[in-house]
Design a protein that fits this description.
Rossmann fold, 6 helices, homodimer, 216 residues, 12% strand, alpha/beta
């Protein structure tokens, strides 16, 4: 059974990859959408090289032309370092919709039956395109609009980051290959942005050794 | 009210544009997805320049990396010239899904409430991503997964090509700017491919003068 796995190089997609590898032949896909932290693509390549995947491709996506999100390198602002409520300033309009659409095109081309996406419970509030009812609707869209009718699987969608780290640890994931930081300092995570803070506390709460190099 | 209009340079999208212009500020979007008939993008530019649209952009989409469709220039085969039943050999996997996703990203960025797509009744059989129930499911996806919750409008979805030509004629559409041919001979339509045959018969059945230059 073939599957397509979103691989961003972060913890969530890396753990999702480990799960997908249990049952399927994995074709990984990463996206260069003009993100500020291009460093994550390097991590995606490292993760892919360390896994037993069948293929890995990196697709350019012209989202940067639209973006107001601080995650995009075209934004004059850096992402906020404090947690905020409501819509995240790192929201990239319809990002998951675009990525899932491209993954569906790929899946429909190679006859893959599953698209694995590492969305999780921490993303609910800030990102409408990370919620279970969104993925349900998209599955219906793909059932009606493609030939191979791939289904989106989100095994982490009800898990918090600490639970995901714990699960990845059970699967033997090497977290040193993964990347989370929005404001990298070379090969170091900044240790202060939203994403770094979430990463730090996830390892601590999971009781798993954190192999990350933090600048602070 | 802002809207995003798919503009391929063909008859359907050009008539849809004329309808959208009645009620909204139009931001047109065209896609360079590696199609064999790149000539259609030139036509999209001509149509855009002749209309009262607010902006027009052409987005590169990396669909050609996946494609088995004869519509893609990476295919060794030319499109068939005879009508076929079942899935069209010109089917590009999940093409509309990818294009609508990108249009949604754009709409969500500029706060547009509508995405206009020129799908029509002739496309039902060969293209699963041109059917009303597909667009319904995608609307639900966008309602759940975006901030501006744009809705897809398909005013031609129940019309045959001849009816669309008739409707465009009522709106004063200049059909000489539009393009249909899969196998262009310079600035001439080949006159023989599926798409040219459909175009010819549509003008004839609609009783509208056909301004197209055909090679045969």
């Amino acid at each position: 059974m073939k599957s397509v796995v979103f691989l961003s190089g972060g913890i969530d997609s890396t753990v999702t990859l480990a799960i997908a590898l249990q049952t399927s032949e994995v074709h990984a896909i990463s996206f260069d959408y003009g993100q500020r932290h291009i460093r994550e693509i390097e991590s995606a390549i490292r993760v892919a090289e360390s896994g037993r995947i069948t293929s890995h491709q990196i697709l350019p996506v012209p989202l940067f032309r639209f973006g107001a999100s601080t995650l995009l390198k075209t934004s004059p602002q850096e992402p906020r370092t404090e947690a905020a409520s409501g819509l995240a300033d790192t929201y990239v309009p319809a990002r998951n919709t675009v990525m899932i659409a491209l993954a569906a095109a790929y899946a429909d081309s190679i006859g893959a039956s599953t698209i694995w996406v590492g969305a999780n419970a921490d993303d609910y509030e800030g990102y409408p395109d990370c919620r279970p009812q969104y993925f349900e609707a998209f599955n219906l869209t793909l059932e009606r609009g493609t030939v191979s009718k791939p289904t989106i699987q989100t095994p982490l969608v009800n898990l918090k980051k600490a639970e995901i780290v714990g699960l990845g640890d059970e699967y033997g994931v090497d977290f040193s290959n993964t990347w989370s930081c929005y404001n990298p300092k070379g090969d170091f995570h900044c240790g202060q942005c939203d994403s770094c803070r979430l990463r730090k506390s996830a390892f601590r709460d999971a009781g798993v050794t954190d192999p990350t190099l933090y600048a602070t």
